[in-house]
Amino acid sequence: MLEIASTDRGLLIPRMTRNQRVAIATPPNGLLVYQTNDAGSEVMGFYYYDAAVVGTGVVGWRHLGQGGPVWQLGGNAGTTNAHFVGTLNNYPLVLRTGNQERGRLTENGQFQLYTQYPNIFAVYPSLVTEMVHVQGGVKLNGGSTGSLPGTIRFAPPSGGTPGRFEGYVQNSGLGVTAPAANGWKQIDNNFHERRLQQTPLSSGGCQDPSNTSLAQTMPPTANTTVAGGARPWPMTGPSVGLGTLGGGATPYYGLWEDSRKQYLYRADDISAAGICMGSDNPIRAMAFNVTGLTGASTRQHYVRIRMKNTGANTTATFDNSGLAVFAQPTTGQITGPPVRYYNPYPPAVPANPPGGETAGFDFAVGWNIHPFDQGGPGFVWTGSNLLIDVAVDNQTWPVKESVVQSYNSGYQSLIYMYCDACGGSGGSPGAGTCLWRTAPTVGFYWPPTAPYNGEPGAGPGTANSDGWGYRGGWDLTNGTNTVACDGQTTTWGGFGPATSNQLPRVAFLAKYTGGGAAVNVGSYMYANEALMVGDAAWAASGAFAPPPSTLRHRGPGTLSAQKSVWSGGTLLTDYVFDLYYDGVAKPEDAKGAGTYSRVPLCDLPNYVERNRRLPNVEGRTAWNTKGSFSLDQITNQLWVAVEDQALYIQELNQRMDALRAYLVEKKLREMEGK
Fold first, then answer.
1. CA dist 581 to 354, 592, 649, Å?
2. 44-77 confidence digits (pLDDT tens)
3. Which of 118, 351, 380, 545 yields a CA-CA distance of 20 to 30 A from 294?
4. Chain mean position to CA 352
5. Closest C-alpha among 647, 648, 617, 619 to residue 635
């Protein structure tokens, strides 16, 4: 044993830097040194060597103060769920900065944050009733990555309602009296103290747009039924900051023979448009907004739109499973090679090569509608993300193209490919892309069926004949070889799809709540429905049923109230007859009766001549000095005036009766010689 004793001296062990310490060759267990510098997580201090453990990044060396099971300033390695920061007794976990308490996790599990101490929660612990308490402001400066009920976010700069606080709500509702509220709902401006706001005023549950027409004129013209009217079709994306989408990313691309696009719309983007989800509200049509026309005059030939509900959040590859056809041509199978499609409708002169076919899809600047044409009510959106697949299979190229209205989605939302007009099932260059290299089976023509469809050339075995492609646009997918006919690498790389953070703005024909029965128009609110003010039982009582009920609402703009209508500070009152017959008004009418003064009938002519108005009816002078009258004021004045006139008429009748009686009596006396 070694014993060292002293009252004025200590034991000085070897001192060295971190690099010198770790350079010690084969140190024995228990070796003790003092490190004189900080090196990342290996701070200065006493270190001892233990070959059986892994310490602070170097096998064997452990800090004397931090080497045990403690939280180290430089961080810990090898932690598990058994490790934690907290207390084992019934005391809070306190957070400090500048040696001032700034927050605590209480022993009851409540999280508190504050800017000064003592805070109000420590002084008045009875106020601590919620899970999180903040003394000061809470700032939200970004969107949410998911759509979970109870989530609060500050709306991102694109989609939803930019610059607004929103909460995600999801419930089943209680039927007519309390319809379901689902999706992101604006939670600021609850009382609409700002007259202008970007979000529509929601009311009335799910309702159709004002116009549900599915007309698409031929030749096509700009369709105003989508965006027109007081309640337009619900549209995805923001209302401002819109851009344009062109080239292969558009729904209508035809510079090359075939193309395919997939657009991923997230659930919160669709919810922001107010679309109601569920089987009772299918999407019956959709429309893209064309802002410009490009390419040739030849019409698009075969355009197919498919949809699916999906849990995917981005588009990395083509999703080929579970797609339901939404719209496609319904022309039956033809008996020979399909003719080409040319404009106009029909051609003014015979086309060369032969034309005149009026089928195919054409489009114009404006909203171009695609109705659901598969039989049944439409496509049911379940509230998840929505994938729209648009594919084009052209008979020839180039054809008419378009530029469509778009917006930045903020995530990878678009994937697309297109195919050069080469062909064949074998050989090169361009093998297996679009057109036939060899003739198909005799009699095998339209409708196209993947992957082998097309029109034969001028003779058997003719290569590169234009006609229906070897591979339809909807067959394009990841790994499809799209090398050009001449073997050159195409502008899209020849393999695989391109992606983008853009989305075409799409409108849906479906019921929605966004906008409800009322929308902001300029500085006022426009209501396309009657307004009923009262409780749910009264509104549903049937009092407003169709004729012969006399209490039904009278159409758009009608205001119906269960009890009474206020338009200022005065309630409708009735006191003229009570004062005349009883000498006193009812208590509820006392306020109005206190300012009432009835002009006697004998004084009425002089009063009207002098004031140029009826008694108790204010005129232009009062209007100019007091401001415009409220609905209640005008109604009360007219009410009083009418009842005054009724009393005047009654007095006149009484006087007429008295005069008649006097004249009769006078005549009788004369006849009797009196």
1. 96, 17, 15
2. 899 999 887 554 444 588 888 765 566 777 777 7
3. 351
4. 49
5. 617
